[in-house]
Amino acid sequence: MPAEPAEERNDIMKEQLEAIRAAAKKALSDCADSKVLETLRVQYLGKKGELTGILKQMGKLSAEERPAMGQLANQVRADIETALADKQKKLAEAMLAHKLEAETLFFFYSCVSDELQTNNGFYSTVTLFARLRGLSTSLPRLTAM
Q: Is the pLDDT of residue 106 over 80?
């Protein structure tokens, strides 16, 4: 079997790098869990990851081809790392928002539960909503930072 021409090898490597970039971005956009995010990081950027496998093949390239291919590989790595960081930030913000919402509801309930009780039980639903409407303006507001 004859050796691949240098241009064909370059094109194949470029296609592989672009395919890795596209697959990583697609997988990251579908990711909804930080554990899955870490798995994706290892899959694409880890020691035995897809990008690392391509970088190991760069030794087969000629000295003239390596800089251009290395630059493209570094750009793909940077794009994946940026997408990972962005997704991690979005997941952390979503988790914080969920936590704040849960804590806000608990805080609200604990503030108003004593106000809503009568001597022999709770108020009726109509009275409850009327009192809550009045209480909600006097309670401190919690805002997420």
A: no
Residue 145: pLDDT band (50, 70, 90) is: very low
Residue carrying structure tokens 């995010």? 37
- Name the β-bridge partners of 122: 117
Nearest of 9, 8, 21 to residue 75 by alpha carbon: 21
- 86 vs 141: CA distance, rounded Å: 29
Cα separation, 63 vs 136, in Å, equals 71
- State how far the Cα of 75 lies from the Cα of 80, in Å rounded to an integer: 9
Q: Can you tell me which residue has the tokens 């554990």?
A: 35
How far from 43 is each of 39, 72, 135, CA to CA, in Å?
6, 19, 52
Task: Please name which of 90, 96, 115, 86 lies closest in space to residue 24, comparing C-alpha atoms.
Answer: 86
CA distance 87 to 81: 10
Residue pair 94/87 in contact by the 8 Å Cβ criterion: no
| DSSP states along 26-55 | HHHHH---HHHHHHHHHHHHSTTSHHHHHH
